[in-house]
Write a structure and sequence with these properties.
Radius of gyration: 35 Å
Number of helices: 4
Order of helices and strands: HEEHEEHEHEE
Structural class: alpha+beta
Shape: elongated
CATH architecture of the domain at 43-99 and 113-156 and 204-219: 2-Layer Sandwich
CATH superfamily of the domain at 43-99 and 113-156 and 204-219: Protein of unknown function (DUF541), domain 2
CATH class of the domain at 43-99 and 113-156 and 204-219: Alpha Beta
Largest sheet: 4 strands, antiparallel
Strand content: 35-45%
Strand order of the largest sheet: 3-4-2-5
Helix content: 25-40%
CATH topology of the domain at 43-99 and 113-156 and 204-219: Alpha-Beta Plaits
Number of strands: 7
Distance between the termini: 69 Å
Length: 245
């Protein structure tokens, strides 16, 4: 019996040192495709950025002129039915204006000097009645607004449009996946994953206001067009081989 212990111990060590052999793992086959869906709608909201730029020989003079013009602009917006919560100050600045000496001759080394001041004040405005937008633009320029930097259109609540686009995107993906599954001699199984990407409507185009708007008898012509909401979706289905009906 004493002679068996070394043999048993050696056999146990040899078994413990042997590498484990795992069965090969094969992932289940899947079909992965992407789909795109769109939904279009006329906008129901517009956003504009309007303001007043004034100058004066002193900062106080420029500011006083600006304050008067901005008060008239804001009062005009409210008179046209724009709610106070849809008017927000977005920029304000007071800057000196310099004259630089002509140094082409090389003899004038004097520093630049201030000849006046410029004050800029602007508000972001949301217009919820698009039928009034042209009139509002005309009225605020007439009230003293001399800068209108941007105009953009949007849909206040795009939830239904996005739902419509999602359904169209999924239907597009499923149609493609069924085609591939049938071509491969099988059918679609359960959904493995769904990944969505939304594409926002195009960015607004800049629009500059000119004093020529003021005093026109007709409102400023505005075309809102249509907005397109796009949803891209990537869907993965399990593939059931040989299950085509």
């Amino acid at each position: 019996m004493r002679q068996l212990w070394p043999l048993l111990s050696f056999a146990a060590l040899a078994f413990a040192a042997a590498p484990a052999v795992a069965a090969p793992h094969h992932s289940a086959p899947v079909i992965s495709v992407s789909g795109m869906g769109e939904a279009q709608s006329a906008p129901d909201t517009a956003a504009i950025s309007a303001g007043v730029t004034t100058t004066g020989t002193t900062a106080g003079e420029a500011l006083a002129a600006n304050t008067k013009a901005m008060a008239a602009l804001i009062a005009t917006l409210k008179a046209q039915g724009v709610d106070a919560k849809d008017i927000q100050t977005s920029r304000f600045s007071v800057n000196p204006q310099y004259v630089y000496p002509d140094r082409n001759g090389g003899g004038d080394n004097s520093p630049p000097h201030i000849v006046g001041y410029q004050v800029e004040n602007g508000v972001d405005v949301k217009v919820r009645q698009l039928a009034d937008l042209g009139t509002i633009l005309d009225k605020i320029v007439g009230a003293g607004a001399n800068t209108i930097n941007n105009i953009s259109f949007s849909v206040a609540d795009p939830a239904e449009l996005l739902t419509e686009a999602r359904k169209a995107a999924f239907a597009d993906a499923k149609q493609k996946a069924e085609t591939y599954a049938e071509a491969a001699g099988g059918a679609l199984g359960s959904i493995v994953s769904v990944d969505e990407t939304q594409t926002p409507p195009p960015m607004p185009r800049p629009m500059m206001a000119k004093a020529a708007f003021a005093g026109d008898s007709a409102p400023v012509p505005v075309e809102a067009g249509q907005l397109t909401f796009t949803v891209d979706v990537a869907v993965r289905w399990a593939f059931k081989a040989g299950s085509a009906e």
